[in-house]
Amino acid sequence: MNIVILLGAPGSGKGTVAGNLASGNSDLKHVSSGDLLRGAVAKGTPAGVEAKGYMESGKLVPDSLIAQMIKDVVAETTGDVTMLLDGFPRNLAQAKILEEMGAPVTSAVLIDVPDEIIQDRIAGRRTCPKCKAGYHVKNLPPKVDGICDNCGAELTIRKDDNPDTVKDRLAVYHSETEPLIAFYREKGQLKTVAGTDPIETVAKNFLAVM
Ligand code: AMP
Question: Which residues lie with the beta carbon below 6 Å from any ligand 1 atom?
Fold first, then answer.
């Protein structure tokens, strides 16, 4: 098993790119910290109960809480697979936790999207609550308005995708997560792809550099 980290602002397309690459490719496994946390919230586990308030206000959940979930997924992932790790690490402390775990990180790929585009991306974002597929009303519409192509469930808008919370999430990204770009650059592991191209192009470029 090896790990490729996806870096990028909220709405940069990390989940869409990783989901697109991993679907139908058993050598790739998409692990999203946000999906793990939303799953825990939905189930009402102790971790989910603790995480809920942080998530709704666009803040990061405590490092130890999300780190434990990631440790569990890393431990249960064996064999010849590449884990596309989306949303973790989110700050330098988490990057160090990942190092201390001895996680086999081979590269960190930044999906680069300017801030001006992010607000619009997130405003149009729709998610399938059942199979987690992601859509966008303009850029990646489902075949039938409001319905998931894969499983027919009704698409939803994430609670933390409202404009006020998005502003807070972007601020958190700049202050907490962006320093990871320099961290992985210094290790010689940073790659960058333009996130403004169509999704198929971003996915293809991502695969080529990772
Ligand atoms: P995402 O789906 O990656 O945008 O994550 C949604 C929310 O989950 C974030 O705004 C945070 O509240 C929380 N979250 C996800 N990943 C992490 C992480 N690595 N560390 C702390 N909080 C996280």
Answer: 10, 33-34, 37, 54-55, 58-61, 66, 87-88, 90, 94, 160, 169
